[in-house]
Amino acid sequence: MAKQSPQSFVTLLGEQVRHEFTASQQYIAIAAWFDDSDLPRLAERFYAQSVEERNHAMMMVRYMLDRDWEVEIPGVDAVRNDFVKPAEPIALALAQEKKVTEQCEALFRAARSEGDVLSEQFMLWFLKEQVEEVASMNSLLTITERAGDDWFQVEEHLARENQAEPTDSSAPEAAGGAL
């Protein structure tokens, strides 16, 4: 296995900032679609998810600033706005979360191969977070698929579900503060 260059973790982290901001924008597009479809609980869930992804990007920015690494705030990739049924945007969100998990794993491996134990430690929180994110999206997709064309069953499920997440005191600090 070839040794990666000393900048590979930093480069990957800069790219991950773009991925997190793109995920945030994609979740806004999904939330707006649910909002326009008069599915307020699904909309609320994805508006909140958008803020969480934005916070993840800002945690990475803060980390780069704290390590005295160059920070460049990127633009975002295109997002999808057109959906037909609620399972479509949720399936997209699940695929996105699985991709982010792969990206976080690559970041962890890069830090490890470079002997950067501080960055390994930093990435552990994101890996734990991704387990929760994938499980949550997978569950929501399953419930949505079971509901079939009765979209309001998903709304009723979300109304019963406790949506308030406890504050994680182990979360990295976000540049400018978390929203």
Automatic annotation (TrEMBL):
GO function terms (MF aspect): ferric iron binding; ferrous iron binding; ferroxidase activity
Region annotation Disordered: where it falls in the sequence: 160-179
UniProt key word Electron transport: no
Listed name of the protein: Ferritin
Ferritin-like diiron domain residues: 3-148
Superkingdom: Bacteria
Annotated residues for binding of Fe cation: 20, 53, 56, 97, 130
